[in-house]
Specification:
Helix content: 55-70%
Shape: globular
Order of helices and strands: HHHHHHHHHHHHH
Largest sheet: none
Structural class: mainly alpha
Number of domains: 1
Number of helices: 13
């Protein structure tokens, strides 16, 4: 049976994905949007990745790898081709090229997710030692200039520790953490302090650190201490994730079912967000209510049963 808690968590996180992409073009002109964007990008994908790792415990089962190819790799190839055509038609690319190794926009997650499942066959054997090694690799990849968006190599290694941590977490242990007596008030304090910290002192040129898609050199010049900064980022992100997770309700809501269909929201929301940015480039930048409401509507529509019913043949190559 599905967990209402995790479906609620996935809905909130996919909303943060859509909202984060919605406000991205306006963040540099608005301090409030910049703070929201920075906090969201600090933890929303790591939390999503941790949950994905938590549900990868059956990776050794027969047919799991084939299922991973069908549900992750095939949609990646399909939408990589679609994005290539769209970018050519709107003039973003001068020539029509199908480069399957340079993920377009948000498609990096699918490619990295496939690699994370493969990496489990090695790292799951050594468990918590593997997590320590994964963190070291996530730090070390930043010192390699050539590691970038090609095959999503940088993000694959930068974000893999969260996936492996999710895999390693035992369900009962996770319940004890999330259900602890003071988990909710502590979570509220953590989230509030994170907003305060980012609102008062997070520099705009540090945003690339949250994305994990390039080397330290390309983020402003390599320093020997950059590895320590990434280690501190890992620690802060984990604290914020476990401040966020106790705040998720476990009840059934109408939006809970959308948590089952986050793949559809993730794959299709880019076309809508890119279009609204092109039509209304600056007119909506200071309309916070519109930004939130529109992002929520995108999630509700793209996560609906009808959307899955009619797009499933395209997404999963299944009738």
């Amino acid at each position: 049976s599905r967990s209402k808690y995790f479906d609620n968590a996935k809905f909130i996180l996919i909303f943060l994905v859509v909202f984060g992409h919605m406000i991205s073009p306006y963040k540099d002109q608005d301090k409030i949007l910049f703070t929201l964007y920075s906090v969201i990008f600090l933890f929303h994908m790591p939390a999503f990745i941790l949950i994905s790792g938590y549900f990868a415990k059956g990776f050794r089962k027969k047919g799991y790898l084939l299922k991973t190819v069908q549900k992750i790799l095939i949609p990646y190839f399909i939408f990589q081709i679609i994005y290539s055509v769209v970018y050519f038609l709107v003039g973003k690319e001068k020539t029509l090229e199908f480069d399957l190794f340079q993920p377009h926009w948000s498609l990096w997650f699918l490619l990295s997710l496939f690699f994370w499942n493969l990496l489990l066959y090695v790292f799951a054997k050594v468990k918590w030692v593997g997590l320590f090694i994964a963190v070291l690799l996530g730090i070390a990849i930043g010192y390699i200039d050539q590691a970038g968006s090609f095959l999503s190599l940088s993000r694959t290694f930068v974000f893999f520790p969260y996936f492996l941590l999710g895999y390693l977490f035992n369900g009962e242990y996770l319940k004890k953490i999330l259900g602890a007596k003071f988990a909710v008030p502590v979570g509220v304090v953590i989230i509030a302090m994170t907003f305060l910290f980012f609102g008062l002192g997070f520099p705009q040129d540090a945003v690339p650190w949250l994305l994990g898609d390039t080397s330290y050199e390309n983020m402003g010049g390599m320093q020997p201490s950059d590895g320590l900064l990434r280690a501190l980022q890992y620690g802060l992100t984990i604290i914020v994730i476990f401040g966020f997770l106790p705040l998720i309700p476990s009840n059934q809501y109408r939006i809970t079912k959308i948590g089952e269909r986050t793949l559809y929201v993730y794959l299709f929301h880019g076309f809508i967000i890119k279009s609204i940015h092109a039509v209304l480039p600056n007119a909506i930048s200071d309309n916070y209510l519109f930004l939130v409401t529109f992002s929520l509507l995108v999630c509700l529509i793209l996560g609906s049963y009808m959307m899955k019913k009619y797009t499933r043949p395209l997404v999963e190559l299944r009738i």
